[in-house]
Specification:
The chain is mainly α and 664 residues long. The chain folds into three domains: 50-251, no CATH class; 277-383, Fumarate Reductase Iron-sulfur Protein, Chain B, domain 2 (Orthogonal Bundle), CATH 1.10.1060; 393-662, no CATH class. The protein is 54% helix and 4% strand. Helix 4 (78-104) packs antiparallel against helix 6, helix 6 runs antiparallel to helix 7 and helix 26 (612-623) crosses helix 27.
Length: 664
């Protein structure tokens, strides 16, 4: 007799099934609706364009589990377990719908279960159950016994409850099928080999009477279904919520280029940046719902690694806690004054610790964006609260007054070019060489520019410069939170570039590259921007530039704004391979470790923890390379400072790729 044909304390099985099922679904729907109402307290954000494209991308990263595959390494293989959980959930979800809700719930089991599809699917579930059980058991051992650093502090009762449900769920399924086989119910008698694990477990029931066997089958059916309903409620009321939220988070993720921040309409904005939790957009709040505290972000964060107050995982969790506490009160009382997030829930020190390297955004399997929230909080500190470290404020004032952030610079914009015979930009020039503030004014970086000019002339590239008309691209201002100053600089530069009819731009600075390429478009600046490593690699390939290798081992520092922001990894490495061979550091490519100078940190003092640039030089020294090459003036300065501080000038030198090619 099917379990739902039985009566329980006088209640028909079908009635009990639908009462419990509808009650669970009702509680689930109520909770989700409330969470959505809380989320909608945030500011509006346009995320409903290109729906088909979004759906295809979401399917690829969720069904294909690229969200986990991208972060699996020999050191950390935990993502494999999550892939098993995800695919297992999707596989079981279909069986719930077809064989339990439709089949058992509507009395169609006799038809559905006497089919080849049911037999084959029980085989699939048999294998999946073993994999899910093994993955859950390993996850419990890993979290509570091995305790890897990124899971430190995550040995909570909630996490254990979640993992226990994942562990027990496949067991109840296997025993449900095993007891059915013992009763000679499908998949028994369908003319094909039985699912091996369930068939083996069915031997446990061999000596039971028919009544006892029937009771056991009913018990396992209800245990399985009640566990499923319990998990559904647990999803809505715990960190399990990421199972649903992350799917929509992937679907609604920003379509902006990775290097572009959200633009503030300075004329209509009621508040600049984020002061309270409701100043975030609804999509940023969805980020908070999606976080499962896996700790991958904190594992790659240079601020966390160097012992600073900023921890991207805790930042998201603290914001999530504030949302969960504040939003329900606001739903009841619109006049309730929420706590200050910026400088309160999240300390100012943590906000300024960020190098905006995007390592956290890149590694997050749920596509949570950390950097944009931090910059939004910086915007509020600078534009609303007038709170900014003195050295950063001086850099911003220098941009405003003199068009560059180098407060102590005494040279003019064109002094670096003396003796190089470089023409000013005109209509005949194919390219504009955008020198950048560092390349024109900072003593060490000037040599990069001079080396690049030598390369351009050697390859007979027709280019010009703006000279005194070039001004800071505005990147330091934007990353330090002064959106107003950034927009002023952007609009001024775009006007200048258009005046000269500029179409193609070459630059040696990844920060300028990213800003002009990805962020000027919002203000009408559409230009083809080429980083000097892209150009050099192309010239070498075309045979227009000769490379003289010296067989000296070279390691490479990936600039964050070149690599993670713009996916330029191949060209710098192809150049270095021709120079003498590449020896990679432990953290390289997409997992590269920041130099510590991004996000305006070039103009901020490191007052706590270790120095990020010195940590990076230690990795470089471990390779045994004699040269650490880079493709960014910020990286070069930070690395050279670290080399001097550690006293290893005799064993390691830092050079830009342009300097290596030019032989400077």
């Amino acid at each position: 007799m099917p379990p739902l044909d039985m009566t329980y304390l006088g209640i028909p099985g079908y009635a009990l099934f639908w009462i419990l099922t509808l009650l669970a679904f009702g509680l689930f729907a109520f909770r989700i609706a409330r969470l959505i109402r809380c989320m909608r307290l945030g500011r509006k954000e346009e995320s409903f364009k290109k729906l088909i494209r979004r759906a295809l991308k979401t399917a690829a990263v969720t069904l294909g589990q690229w969200c986990q595959l991208k972060s699996i390494s020999l050191k950390d293989r935990a993502g494999i377990g999550h892939i098993i959980f995800a695919w297992g959930f999707l596989t079981f979800a279909l069986s719930y719908l077809v064989f339990i809700i439709i089949g058992a719930g509507f009395g169609l089991s006799a038809t559905l279960e006497h089919s080849a599809f049911y037999l084959y699917y029980t085989w699939i579930l048999d294998i999946v159950s073993v994999l899910v059980f093994a993955a859950a058991l390993w996850a419990i051992i890993r979290r509570y016994v091995i305790r890897p650093p990124r899971l430190r502090g995550e040995q909570t009762g909630e996490a254990l409850l979640i993992l226990l449900t994942v562990l027990l769920h496949p067991l109840t399924h296997l025993f449900k099928i095993a007891s059915a086989i013992a009763l000679s119910h499908p998949p028994a008698g369908l003319g094909f080999a039985l699912p091996p694990v369930s068939a083996a477990l069915s031997n446990i029931f061999t000596n039971l009477s028919l009544d006892a066997l029937q009771a056991a089958h009913a018990a396992f059916f209800w245990a399985h279904w009640l566990l499923i309903l319990g998990v559904m409620l647990l999803v809505a009321y715990s960190r399990y919520l990421h199972m649903i939220a992350s799917f929509f988070n992937a679907f609604f993720r920003s379509q902006l280029p990775k290097g572009e921040l959200r633009t503030i309409d300075m004329e209509t904005a009621e508040i600049f940046g984020t002061a309270r939790i409701t100043d975030f957009t609804w999509k940023q709040m969805l980020d908070l719902y999606s976080c499962v505290s896996c700790g991958q972000c904190q594992q790659v964060c240079p601020a966390t690694a160097s012992g600073k107050p900023l921890n991207p995982k805790l930042l998201i969790q603290d914001l999530k806690q504030e949302l969960m506490q504040t939003a329900p009160r606001l739903l009841k009382d619109k006049d309730y004054k929420a706590a200050t997030v910026t400088g309160g829930v999240i300390t100012s020190e943590a906000i300024w610790d960020c190098t905006t390297c995007r390592a956290c955004d890149e590694v997050c399997p749920l596509y949570i964006e950390h950097v944009d929230k931090i910059v939004d909080m910086r915007r509020n500190l600078v534009l609303e609260q007038a709170v900014i470290p003195e050295s950063a404020e001086q850099a911003l004032r220098s941009i405003e007054a003199r068009g560059h952030p180098w407060r102590g610079a005494t040279a003019g914009r064109t002094e670096w070019s003396q003796g190089l015979d470089i023409k000013d930009m005109d209509a005949d020039c194919e390219f504009l060489l955008w020198v950048g503030c560092s390349g024109a004014l900072e003593e060490r970086s000037i040599n990069i520019t001079r080396s690049l000019v030598k390369i351009l002339k050697q390859a007979d590239i027709n280019f010009g410069i703006l000279g005194a008309e070039e001004s800071c691209c505005g990147q330091p201002a934007r990353r330090l939170g002064n959106e107003y100053l950034f927009q002023m600089q952007a609009q001024k530069n775009i006007e200048t570039l258009k005046k000269y009819g500029v179409k193609k731009i070459i630059t040696a600075c990844p920060h300028c590259y990213n800003t002009i390429k990805n962020e000027y478009t919002a203000f009408g600046g559409e230009f083809e921007v080429i980083h000097h490593t892209q150009l050099i690699a192309s010239l070498i390939e075309e045979g227009r530039l000769e490379v003289k290798g010296n067989n000296s081992p070279i390691t490479y520092q990936d600039p964050c704004y070149l690599g993670r922001y713009n996916d330029i990894y191949k060209q710098p490495r192809s150049i270095i391979q021709k120079l003498g061979g590449l020896t990679e550091m432990e953290d390289s490519g997409k997992k590269g470790f920041c130099c510590g100078g991004g996000g305006g940190r070039m103009w901020l003092e490191e007052k706590s923890g270790s120095r990020i640039n010195e940590m990076r030089i230690e990795q470089a020294l471990e390779t045994g390379a004699e040269t650490i090459a880079t493709a960014c003036p910020f990286c070069l300065q930070m690395l050279e400072d670290a080399i001097k501080t550690k006293g290893c000038q005799d064993s390691l030198k830092a050079l830009d790729i342009a300097e290596l090619i030019a032989g400077e």
